[in-house]
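Issue: ligand-bound run for zinc ion - logging full I/O for the record.

Environment: standard queue, default settings, no custom constraints.

Inputs:
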Amino acid sequence: MNTKLQAIQKISSFLKGTNQTLLLTGTHQKMKHPLVLELVLSKYPAPATILFRTNNLKILGETLGLDRDPKIGKPISVQRGFTLFPDTIKRTTWQSSPRSIDIAIVYPIDSLKFDAGGECIQDLMHRGVKKIFLVSWTDNVDFSWTEYFNPVHVIYDAEEEDSEYHERMMEHVSVRSGPDLPSLPAYAASTPIEYLVQIWCRGKCLNTRWAKLNLPYPGEVAIRKAELGKFRAKCLKCGYEAVDNSNWSR
Ligand SMILES: [Zn+2]
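Outputs:
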């Protein structure tokens, strides 16, 4: 199960590790970005500059409990040692943002595709960003463009805290098929597309990896709901065999 606890653990180790980008998806629509913010403020060494990039500044105001909506380019002191700047996923707002940032939180990423998403991440990199969080709202669109940036993938579902809500959201998650797959890394390119799935490799890799399934990929809902043991996936990088299908996607 993709619980809050495992999300906290994975995000915390990402903050300490060397990976630059983290993709956070899952059915807990409105609880993912507050969790990221909370963990950044409690685990990342201060002083640090945070950029919150959104499509709606109200979201940030509500998350921080502000009386007024935040303004683009106006710093908000969120906690001793941390300064947070808001901007939006619209390029025209980026010129007001600080030239140097430590952490970027992009939420929601639902409307971004390969071009706009790539442009957004390149801009963050030009600002010297150390950690990028790409956070989804509703997982009914294709986030495979993020694969290009080799993110650590963490899933935070509502299942444990509110199973009815989780089930409702799972029904919205569309079944994705082959043609939308991103350009695959070389180590996965020779495997037939219908047998490919992404896993969190607990073998040598300790990273998100493409793996080969024992059965053709049935879609995200079906694979995440399948009974344990029905699907097995072998990491194409190190050969580790995974059975924790509730985490898999593509
Ligand atoms: Zn592996």
